[in-house]
Amino acid sequence: MSRFISLLLWVCITSCNAWLIMQAMAYLIRPKQNRRFLRHCVMFTSCFILSSTIIFIGDPFNILVVTPLFMAVVFIIYEGSFWKRVTLGAMYASTILSFNILRDNYCKPLFAKLEAFLFPEHRILYNEYITEELSLDFIRTVSVFTSLLFTLFLYASTRKSAPDKDYTISDDLWKLLLLLTMAPFGIVLCICILPEADRQIYSAWPHYYITSVTYLLLTLIAIFSFVILLRCIIVLAKQQKLEQQNMLTEINRTYYETMEQQHFEIRRLKHDLANHLQVLSALPEEDRDAYLSDLTENAAITQTISYCTDTTVNAVLTVKKSLMERHDILMKTVIDIPVELPFDKTDLCALYANALDNAIEACLKLPKAERIINLKSKAQKGLFCLEVTNPLPSLAEISPGQIEQKPKENAYMKLKNALQESVIPSTSKSDKHNHGFGLKSINEIVERYHGSLELKAENQAFNLFLYIPL
């Protein structure tokens, strides 16, 4: 009965180890969303096998079987570039296998000596010789608890130091990290694969102690390389984020200057409208129609609407309303901003302009009758709030064949799944290198002002809501 309880305890704790490994990896790489339950089961099984695999020095069989299996599962289950998946898979595989070497070759002999000391009744005397028949239950139980402590360390290290969920690192940097990962990974493979390792570890003194200590130090180096590699990922992710923030700031500044220039042109041409009327009165009748046509096509003479007391908000909404009218998009506004907002004009312009640009882009994919954008904005009781809602394509507009054959192309479901994972959705444009900065720019500005951004996709509509303390 005690043997059954020990085995059950081993299964439970090893399952906990597998779950901790999965959770640790989830902080650095996101699993794919389709068939989530099946993918989680497959990943859990691979982590269970990886954590429980016995690795002996000089015995290459287990490591050569388990490593490709784990890498293949990581490549199938998780999202991201090829180099990201390979690097993180190799990093976690080398770390866990390094600990398995330490556990099975160094810890278990110590546990056996500890059992002989604590439980001398396990020692059985045959004739004139003493034969130690130590219980495997004690060694297995202590080993699995040691594995639990290690996986807790692995999980805690990743959770404490993990970058933001939407962190990005270029493929060139992932390749560099992969090269750094190859050092501890190569140490693990060499310890297990080299045929001399098995003979040297069991050779006579002093070779036994020298070789044993050497392999122990190499194994510890391989384990603690994980901390160094994790730190590298954090530093590179922060550097990439800083560069992206600088780029977004420059884009927003340019955007604001362009918007301000357009608004200035509106006011200038309205001021000069009297001169245009004088010219019209003096032109011959055959030239008057052409002059009027050129003049009315210029968006700068459209009516400037005063939405609130903030001039930046008025400028952005005036320009965007003109753009919406050209594309038959109806904008409904409810704005209550009684004072000039205390934010940088570039940031304020970026908040409204990017939110409306995304809504306009979504409306252009809909029939003209469904193109409606609702904008609500208030500055009251110490909070500035902005809410923009626009419709999304419904499933009824997608043919059944598309849903059955290509479910991944359903933009609405992809957007909804991304928002459920608290991930900023990527752009739907093909040129992702030069597009897709709108929501990231909004999120960066809101975080900088200690506000909050909420994105929802419900009832076939996309809703953006943000608030910032005044």
Notes on the structure:
There is one protein chain. This protein is an alpha+beta fold. The chain folds into 2 domains: 2-247, no CATH class; 305-469, Heat Shock Protein 90. 64% of the residues lie in helices and 10% in strands. The strands form 2 sheets. A 5-stranded mixed sheet has the order 3-4-5-7-6. It starts with a helix and ends with a strand.
Sum up the structure in keywords.
alpha+beta, 470 residues, 64% helix, Heat Shock Protein 90, five-stranded mixed sheet, elongated
The H/E string reads: HHHHEEHHHHHHHEHEEHHHEE
Number of domains: 2
| Percentage of β-strand residues | 5-15%
What general form does the structure show?
elongated
Major beta sheet, specifics? 5 strands, mixed
By secondary-structure content and strand pairing, the structural class works out as alpha+beta
Count of strand segments: 7
What is the tally of helical segments? 15
Which residues form runs of ≥5 with pLDDT under 50? 125-132, 197-202, 395-409, 430-436
Distance between the first and last residues' Cα: 67 Å
Rg from alpha-carbon coordinates: 32 Å
Helix content: 55-70%
Mean pLDDT: 75
**Widest sheet: strand ordering:** 3-4-5-7-6
